[in-house]
Amino acid sequence: MRALFIQHDPGSQPGLVGRALAERGFELELLPIGGSIHDATYHGPFPRAREFDLLVPLGAIWSVYDHRAVGTWIQRELDLLREADREAVPVLGICFGGQALAAAHGGEVKAADQAEIGFTSVRTEAPQLVPPGPWMQWHHDVFTVPDGGEELARNEVGPQAFRLRRNLGLQFHPEVDADIVASWLEMGGAAAHADLQAATGADLDTLLAIAAAERERCERDVATLVDGFLAEVAGV
Does 169 have pLDDT greater than 80? Predict the structure, then answer.
């Protein structure tokens, strides 16, 4: 089985989700799009959805609606996600990928009233599929659930998970571990550190300590999420 991870910038990594899928027999493939966090330009091809058994569009520093940044490829990615839906190819959208999944099926993506950064819990209607966390968050946008979709989890910022046929869209980052968090702060430099401080009052060392302490629980929750997605949503 082949799982395609769509990497919108170099900070987007399969992480814990990729490891869980590999343990369940998936061959992981990566489609790199943005070459840096400063330039999202991509004129390369997108594959056909049916070439894969699962698509996983990952997070991004960009916004789905920022066409000056993502205009060279975002419409083609939305077309790919709609094609996957028509072809019954399961999609697991993560953060930006969840927003793109919502937008592809008629949902709205817009700036959030407040940034959400750090580990936060969600109120879940389906804990066997989306455990309450805490999950790692780093986003400034929110999505609305598309017509026909089922909201599975939310918090005070907005929807955190929805299901639509064989699609599962997430606002949070189940893939993240301490190494990925550290890479985000390194790539983002002073601006990322300021973002973290403004949103949480914490510094990098504090966030890394939390990520390390949460590692085993996160792995268990990711296992629940991946198993639930494959069984209940993807049907594989």
Answer: yes
> Mind giving me the DSSP string for 4-16?
EEEESSTT---HH
Between CA 182 and CA 109 the distance in angstroms is: 27
Look at residue 230 in the predicted model and tell me its pLDDT: 98
Q: What is the pTM of this model?
A: 0.95
Backbone angles phi, psi at 198, to 5 degrees: -65, -35
* Domain chopping of the chain, boundaries: 2-234
Task: Compute the mean pLDDT over every residue in the chain, rounded to the nearest whole number.
Answer: 93
Q: Are 12 and 97 in contact (CB under 8 A)?
A: no
d(Cα 33, Cα 39) in Å, to the nearest integer?
10
The CATH number assigned to the domain with range 2-234 reads 3.40.50.880
Residue 136, burial from CB neighbour count under 10 angstroms (0-12, 13-18, 19+) = buried
Q: Residue 197 pLDDT > 90, yes or no?
A: no
